[in-house]
Amino acid sequence: MSETFQVSATEHGVIRIFMVNLSADEATRFAENTDGATPAPISRALGVDELDHTYVELFALNSLDGVGLAGYLVEGLGVAEADVAPYRSRLNGISGHVLIVLSKAFGGRAATITPVAPLKWIGTYTEEGASVKFEPLPSKGAEGNVVSAPTKAPKSDARVGGMIAMYALIAMFALVGLMIWVAG
């Protein structure tokens, strides 16, 4: 009986690792999508219809010489060292090919993964997120109540009337000056 994994539409930062029991030539063909009409062999083996292969890695473990699968998870994929440490010897002891499926491969859609041969589930890990620290702000300016800015007082009726009278006098002065110039 194979394992079944649920992927939620909001899943983020989950890394699933599968051992691939294929030869090098078979692994190359396994990664290829021959036509757009049918799902790639990787998608079929995972039991999903749609998979963004940008976020799927299939590679030979001998390409990780000196680092190992555990080191790749920590240094390359951002899994916490504490999460990998209990399984380090088992992860580094695996040989052949491995398939790594990141959460983004499902494109924000919910899915059910039911892996079948040639895949065998190895483990599921999560990316180490930056820890959030809730500290008080260093500035005292961030404390207290927000006070709205003072508003300008509306202009008084006497002031408005005076402005109208002034503009009327200027207009009359210009009109009298124009009449004297035309008559003169």
Automatic annotation (TrEMBL):
Protein name (Swiss-Prot/TrEMBL): Aspartate carbamoyltransferase catalytic subunit
Lineage, top ranks: Bacteria, Pseudomonadati, Pseudomonadota, Alphaproteobacteria, Rhodobacterales
Domain of life of the organism encoding this protein: Bacteria
UniProt keywords, alphabetically: Membrane, Transmembrane, Transmembrane helix
Transmembrane segments: 164-183
